[in-house]
Amino acid sequence: MPDRPLFALGTLLFSATLLFGQAPAPEGSCVGLLAASSSLGPGCGNPTPDLFASPPVLGGAVFAMVSSSFPSAPTYVYMSIGSHTPVHLGWVTNCTIYVDLVNSANFFVIAQGFTDATGTLMLPLHRVPNDPSLHGLQLTIQAEVWDGTGPVFGDHLTNGILLTVGC
Q1: Does some domain include residue 28?
Q2: What is the pTM of this model?
Q3: What is the per-residue pLDDT across 15-66, written as a single tens digit (0 to 9) for each?
Q4: Helix, strand, or coil (residue 24)
Q5: Which residues are CB-contacts of 163 (< 8 A; sequence separation ≥ 6)?
Q6: 81 alpha carbon, distance to own chain's centre
Q7: Does residue 83 sit within a domain?
Q8: Best label site of 5, 33, 35, 86, fewest CB within 10 Å?
Q9: How many Cβ atoms are within 10 Å of 9's Cβ, its own excluded?
């Protein structure tokens, strides 16, 4: 019997519960944790840019979109493995960094580009290997959009997103 379906960024995700005995799962069904993309909290800057990301499905591609009010602006997407204690920037009101700045070995630039004339940047990130050992892996991502007027050295920071690899 299907559980609650979820439609996310053009992908229909669902799980099923076996009610009568034990049986092998049919080919292509999800057994285990569903892939997820969850907001960790707001970004900062006025106006604040937004980051959206598709859930990382084993064997699938992950896409991100940055939406801002800054046309032709340099934009970077950062990633850290795992979930981290956010760092609140004391000199900027309500500004939080969600990726792991404390450990430089766990701080990666995974995409960069320029926003278009509307301030939007669509980014294919990386394909998730179809490797069951990655099931449940959590990744934290956050982007910055630079226009020189942002509160963090000219940058406007997006919300943070926690990605959970699943099926």
Answers
A1: no
A2: 0.79
A3: 443 333 333 444 566 677 899 999 999 999 889 999 999 999 999 999 999 9
A4: coil
A5: 35, 36, 37, 53, 55, 56, 62, 138, 139, 140, 141
A6: 12
A7: yes
A8: 5
A9: 13
